[in-house]
Write a structure and sequence with these properties.
Elements: H1 2-6, E1 25-26, E2 29-32, E3 35-38, E4 43-54, E5 57-67, H2 71-85, H3 91-94, H4 97-112, H5 115-126, H6 130-158, E6 162-164, E7 167-175, E8 178-182, H7 190-201, E9 205-209, H8 222-228, E10 234-236, H9 241-251, E11 256-260, H10 263-270, E12 280-284, E13 289-293, H11 299-311, E14 321-327, H12 331-343, H13 365-378, E15 382-383, E16 391-392, E17 395-396, E18 399-402, H14 409-412, E19 419-425, H15 428-437, E20 440-441, E21 443-447, H16 451-461, E22 467-470, E23 486-487, E24 490-491, H17 496-502, E25 504-512, H18 515-526
Helix pairs in contact: 2-9, 4-6, 4-8, 5-6, 6-7, 11-12
């Protein structure tokens, strides 16, 4: 294993021509009020998780740099968004739904033209495989298209009038105001855009700060954002969070906070807002999703799903399976099959065909994972798979730990990486107690065949997590399904349709059904005198 990992990273000449970035990307542009401004101040180097072999040494690849903006620039971005919203009287919030859809469709055309470069940037900056990078790009485009269709349907349903108890009314959704959108490094395009575009298309104006890693992929889209939306509607800033985002929160001018990251980060930022009751938060946070493998589980299926659930994108997903509870009666065959399956997983560079395990983008991540493994070993666990926990710079070979107990950090902490804790259990109450006492409540996976047993777990967990998966790994999709969580795992619900609702609020025009009022409303509709009160039908 050590000998193999010593040859893991390539020399420059071994990188396929089609997988190389065209050049070092020095990004000095940022977008404020419809203008691409140039930054002449300090820059932040962007380091790839890929190391390059030069003789007997390895050197981390530098792929570019991004602006280290200050509070001054972030405030200019906020002021531009506030002015563009103009208390709901700006051009963007007053546009018809059809008009806003046209702007988003224009952006989508320009975005698709940048597919190849964005896919390469995903590979090089966060170590995502080429297949998964392509999937993330295409899925994001599909999500935008589905969002447009969902908004059309929502608007069609709102075009009618309702009558109740002698009052007629039309109920529509309107924007909330100025939004701050921040995405995660593991899905810096997809999960970022699943909040950004619902916020925009519902009429909000936005300050957008890209993820800490996976930041360069926004650069090819800066002109598309500039050319597709009115000035001030979308403003894109870069830099350290404490010098940019904190200052925005303290102004109290933000109405919406869309954030995917840690619950600690979300809590710290929310506390800075002077009027937190006026801040609508849409948060996707930490998770420690368990799998429970029951005595009668289909072992082949359970192992296959657990391997996918724990190690897809190196386990760097909030929906990943973070701890496996396996009944003692099937422990030996499960652990053997699981370790055998792990040994068959291909690892290497993101562009290599069929690769699954790749280098990790976060600095210091391998040291953190190594610490979790050492803590588990000191408290009675063993590494069950050959080579488990072997490190080569930014690469961490998966470590399967067994038996894991509540004295170990890995039992509680979200590892967000390829360390797999296996916990033996005998009584259902052990696993139920774990979920009930956990600080997190996103999802759980159940593997078994006994319907009564599964029903017992469903009833125990329905009030604890957002999604219960039967004989399959935890996951977000399909995007039409609600995606949420409880406790410290989330706030608000996302899906193609739910996202439109969380970034807007219902407002209505109501009147007694008198002849005079009917005449007033009919004139408004007939003469198209109002953008809000309308029965226009979008095809």
């Amino acid at each position: 294993m050590s000998e193999f990992l010593s040859d893991l990273f390539p020399s420059e000449s071994e990188i396929p021509q089609q997988s190389r970035l065209p050049q070092l990307i020095e990004q000095r542009e940022y977008l404020i009020n419809g203008e691409l401004r140039r930054w002449e101040g300090p820059m932040n180097p962007v380091m790839s998780p890929v190391f390059i072999r030069n003789g007997n040494s390895l050197e981390q690849k530098v792929i570019g740099s991004t602006p280290l903006l200050t509070t001054k620039e972030s405030m200019e971005a906020l002021n531009a968004a506030v002015a563009a919203y103009d208390l709901g009287h700006g051009t963007w919030p007053l546009m018809t739904v059809s008009q806003r859809i046209e702007h988003v469709e224009k952006f989508l055309v320009m975005m698709k033209a940048q597919r190849d470069l964005i896919v390469k940037l995903l590979m090089w900056e966060i170590g995502k495989t080429q297949k998964d990078s392509e999937k993330e790009f295409d899925r994001t485009c599909d999500y935008i298209v589905d969002t447009i269709h969902a908004l059309k349907e929502l608007d069609r349903n709102s075009a009618k009038f309702v009558q109740e108890q002698g009052i007629m009314a039309q109920i529509r959704r309107v924007p909330l105001g100025v939004a701050l959108c921040m995405g995660p490094f593991n899905y810096p395009l997809n999960e970022t855009f699943t909040t950004l575009f619902p916020a925009l298309i519902m009429g909000n104006t936005v300050v957008f700060k890209p993820a800490k890693y996976g930041v360069l992929l926004i650069r090819p889209l800066l002109e598309a954002f500039r050319d597709s939306f009115p000035p001030g509607v979308i403003n894109i800033i870069y830099g350290r969070g404490r010098e940019t985002v904190g200052a925005l929160m303290e102004t109290g001018k933000l109405d919406v906070f869309a954030f995917i990251g840690t619950n600690k980060g979300a809590n710290d930022l929310k506390k800075l807002h002077p009027k937190p009751h006026r801040l609508k938060a849409i948060l996707g946070l930490d998770a420690k999703n368990p799998a429970i493998v029951m005595p009668d589980a289909d072992l082949d299926n359970a192992v296959n799903e657990c391997v996918l659930g724990t190690l897809s994108f190196n386990g760097q997903r909030c929906t990943a399976l973070k701890v496996l509870f396996v009944h003692r009666s099937i422990l030996e065959p499960f652990v053997k099959k699981y370790c055998d399956a792990v040994s068959q997983i291909k690892y290497g560079m993101p562009w290599e065909p069929g690769v699954t395990l790749t280098p990790l983008p976060e600095p210091g991540k391998t040291d953190y994972l190594k610490g979790l493994v050492e803590d588990a070993l000191q408290n009675g666990a063993k590494i069950m798979n050959p080579g488990g926990g072997t490190v080569q710079h930014s690469f961490f070979y998966p470590a399967v730990l067994y038996p894991v107990n509540d004295k170990m950090k890995i039992y509680y902490e979200e590892q967000f990486g390829p360390v797999i804790p296996i916990v033996p259990y005998e009584q259902d109450e052990e696993t139920i107690r774990y979920v009930l006492n956990s600080h997190f409540g996103q999802q759980v996976s159940l593997f078994g065949k006994d319907s009564k047993q599964i029903a017992k777990y469903i009833d125990a967990f329905a009030s604890q997590v957002g999604r219960i998966n039967l004989n399959t790994q935890c996951q977000r999709g399909p995007d039409t399904f609600p995606f949420n969580g409880r406790k410290d795992s989330a706030e608000g619900t996302l899906s193609v349709s739910d996202a439109l609702r969380v970034f807007s609020i219902r407002s209505l025009v109501a009147a007694k059904t008198t002849t005079e009022n009917k005449t007033i409303v009919a004139n408004i509709l007939r003469n198209r005198e109002s953008g809000f009160l309308t029965t226009d039908y979008i095809f």
